[in-house]
Structure to design on (343 residues):
């Protein structure tokens, strides 16, 4: 870093004020995880259509990198991108699974990467997808923190990093500056969570809609549940869910939902859990929270009218649910994510 002007000319990022995300890849990087970071952050836009993130792929040194799909990629950016980034994301690697059932020996690939992460400033947000959490733990970033990884590597992670509070039964963890996620698809949930944290539910929901994925699966949802795949000959619960979304402003009971599918409440609840992975009540509450967040961000409705439109029945009920989900009040949420200073 001897020449500041030269550094600027070589910058990995556009320098236009957008949040800078560097995806740090290693040999045999899991290509799906690399792509999903670019896809999700790359879709985030302001209401006027301006991009909110600048995303680049980097390695410790520029050049060719193998992927798990056996095709190489050429990485244009080196370690400087890490120093410039606001957020660094570390995907997993196929090599991480090579010794999943045994105590691993020294890792010549991960050690330099861990050292590079260790040097990052306290203001840099660092996240891992899947077994990328091993690199964060190797760097000492997870010591004393709650973290997760892919369930196949859980026992190896516990043995290797006993000072980390490991949680198998979650999709992702958020410990402020450091975040981790479980298997590959939970990286989608983690990225949407970061976008939601940065810019609110409306932006995150737009990204989810464009990617055709659920806008929110709670971080505490189990990453791996042994249950049979629903019988495709059995009707789904989609009609009931569509009806519920159209009637969020009114009380919706389990009996109402079951009636949309012409089935008993017991059968409906079983089918709903098989299909969605959560109870009808939990799902309905999450939809009400999402509706309230969207209205707080995008409308000038008073808080009590937002509560009524989202079906909470009272401002106090909405306040309790938002605090449980997000840790903040409706007025604080609006002031944070409206972006126009209104509160």
């Amino acid at each position: 870093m001897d020449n500041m002007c030269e550094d600027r000319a070589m910058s990995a990022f556009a320098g236009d004020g957008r949040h800078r995300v560097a995806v740090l890849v290693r040999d045999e990087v899991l290509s799906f995880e690399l792509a999903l970071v670019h896809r999700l952050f790359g879709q985030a836009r302001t209401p006027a259509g301006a991009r909110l993130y600048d995303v680049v792929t980097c390695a410790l040194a520029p050049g060719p990198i193998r992927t798990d799909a056996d095709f190489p990629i050429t990485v244009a950016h080196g370690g400087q991108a890490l120093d410039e980034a606001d957020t660094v994301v570390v995907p997993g690697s196929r090599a991480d699974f090579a010794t999943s059932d045994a105590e691993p020996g020294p890792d010549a690939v991960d050690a330099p990467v861990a050292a590079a992460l260790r040097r990052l400033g306290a203001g840099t947000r660092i996240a891992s997808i899947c077994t990328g959490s091993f690199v964060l733990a190797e760097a000492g970033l997870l010591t004393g923190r709650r973290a997760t990884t892919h369930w196949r590597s859980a026992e190896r992670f516990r043995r290797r990093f006993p000072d980390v509070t490991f949680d198998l039964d979650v999709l992702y963890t958020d410990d402020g500056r450091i975040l981790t996620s479980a298997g590959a698809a939970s990286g989608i949930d983690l990225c949407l969570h970061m976008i939601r944290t940065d810019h609110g539910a409306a932006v995150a929901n737009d990204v989810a809609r464009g990617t055709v994925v659920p806008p929110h699966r709670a971080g505490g949802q189990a990453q791996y549940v042994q249950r049979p795949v629903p019988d495709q000959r059995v009707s789904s619960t989609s009609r009931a869910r569509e009806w519920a979304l159209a009637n969020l402003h009114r009380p919706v009971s389990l009996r109402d939902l079951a009636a949309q599918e012409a089935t008993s409440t017991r059968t409906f609840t079983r089918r709903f859990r098989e299909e969605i992975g959560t109870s009808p009540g939990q799902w309905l509450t999450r939809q009400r929270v999402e509706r309230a967040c969207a209205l707080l961000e995008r409308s000038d409705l008073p808080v009590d009218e937002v509560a009524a439109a989202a079906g909470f029945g009272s401002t106090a009920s909405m306040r309790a649910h938002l605090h449980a989900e997000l840790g903040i009040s409706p007025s604080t949420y609006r002031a944070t994510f409206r972006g126009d200073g209104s509160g």
Summary: The CA atoms of residues 8 and 342 lie 36 Å apart. Confidence is low (pLDDT under 50) at residues 1-9, 100-109, 224-233. The two ends are 43 Å apart (CA to CA).
